[in-house]
Amino acid sequence: MSRVRVVEVGPRDGLQNEPTAVATAVKLELIARLAAAGLRWIEPTAFVSPRWVPQMADHAELLAALEQTPGMHYPVLVPNLQGLERALEAGAREIAVFTAASESFTRRNINCGIDESLARFAPVIERAGARDIPVRGYVSCALGCPYEGAIAPTAVARVAERLAALGCAEISLGDTIGTGTPGQARAMVETVAERVPMARLAAHFHDTYGQALANLHAVIEAGVRTVDASVAGLGGCPYARGASGNVATEEVVYMLHGLGFDTGVDLPALVETARWIGERLGRPPSRLARALAPAD
Amino acid sequence: MSRVRVVEVGPRDGLQNEPTAVATAVKLELIARLAAAGLRWIEPTAFVSPRWVPQMADHAELLAALEQTPGMHYPVLVPNLQGLERALEAGAREIAVFTAASESFTRRNINCGIDESLARFAPVIERAGARDIPVRGYVSCALGCPYEGAIAPTAVARVAERLAALGCAEISLGDTIGTGTPGQARAMVETVAERVPMARLAAHFHDTYGQALANLHAVIEAGVRTVDASVAGLGGCPYARGASGNVATEEVVYMLHGLGFDTGVDLPALVETARWIGERLGRPPSRLARALAPAD
């Protein structure tokens, strides 16, 4: 059976946009439940300034408290060398860096252009590489930008290729605003795969327009075998009006199992985790979690 | 540009499960708005007993009040000859009949087996044919049954073939409980297409497990060019626990336009209609309607 690797981004990409503070203990329990459900790649936090992302202010405490057992991968987002140093001090063994295929988005989101963001990441990736720390590179706005609209697949490919050349082991292509449709998603991924091998690409699609699962199916048909998702659909992009969150991990896993892929995930345990965190945060359950709810 | 025909089933399949009565005037306004948004196939009501489906008790009044302008198609669901006669009296020009690929579901839903349901429809379809009334045939449980679980694609094909042989111009294949995934949906449709030409098939998928758009994309890739959907995702199947409704027409149309298909639908007008009926019924908006909501 063919395998699809699911990268759970709920604790970071999901929770970072939650309006109310989530206790470190709740985050740790969420991560423990996700690991118990069979997820092996979980992005736990970001070493960004608490001034910009207060929800991630407990990053050092959280990472230090995580038991990094063999086989578990906990990449943490770092924006710069300072973030890398703090992450390493707290025990990070994998990291992720973040840029975009849109010049305008990069400027508004991380306050510099694409070139400058790559220049900033070069020493981060190099230092990580020197310590055998794998680096994941995010390319957001891969299917559209809230400021520029359409983004050419070749623009995405250029940024992905440069991240790969800098040393990123994996490139995660993000439909940050969720406007993509399946044909576009497939064309984008195939264009990127001309520069970076398909095996090193991940799809990170948001469900803001309801298209995420259809888009994921399209890129899986194209050969993508790594998919980012967020339990219970936690999160969303603060720049996309009415953003309704990331694609729900449980709906992705259900589809993947139906397609005959092995994910290593125990779906009922994942659905139970989705229900648990949704209740904690007062979020509505995903469609799948509602459908599989125990009878009253 | 290739065309996909969208059959709007919200006023019938959507509203029939609404717990509170919807006024005939609201239904008529909904249909008028859908037509103004460019939908040309709208299922307005069902000529079933008000004892079983109270929400459709106004079928004769509703149909009589509909202005059936040229180019508009308003197929009404009829369960038997009596229903057909009443529909014709009220001015029906197109009808639909309903059976399932699952013996258990058919027994519980329409109180007879598949063979008996087909025998019951034979004179209905024949009489309709004699009056040049096109008949649409629904085959529900095409991707799974709440009582029997998995349904073999060949079982779906057999029922579809028999409906076609009886005179149904079009066969709508329903994932009534919404459990299907894209590979399964495509395989089912391709199996049915060995018996009934693809051009006569429609996909009617529910979004209960979040899979509907991915499944629709898969069958569109396989050649299906008619898709059923329900504005605002109205409806759902009362037999599927936690059913979260039909697939939202606006999310389907958005995907189809993104794939380069012409639907004839004005998406902003459709989204506005979805918002309007959602507010009327106190339903949450679809993800797409939320994403496209006007700024506060």
Automatic annotation (TrEMBL), chains A, B:
It holds the Pfam family HMGL-like. One of its GO terms (molecular function) is hydroxymethylglutaryl-CoA lyase activity. The keyword Ribonucleoprotein does not apply. One of its GO terms (biological process) is L-leucine catabolic process. Pathway: Metabolic intermediate metabolism; (S)-3-hydroxy-3-methylglutaryl-CoA degradation; acetoacetate from (S)-3-hydroxy-3-methylglutaryl-CoA: step 1/1. Residues 4-271 form the Pyruvate carboxyltransferase domain. InterPro entries: Aldolase_TIM, HMG_CoA_lyase_AS, HMGL, PYR_CT. It comes from Marichromatium purpuratum 984. This is hydroxymethylglutaryl-CoA lyase. SUPFAM superfamilies: Aldolase (SSF51569).
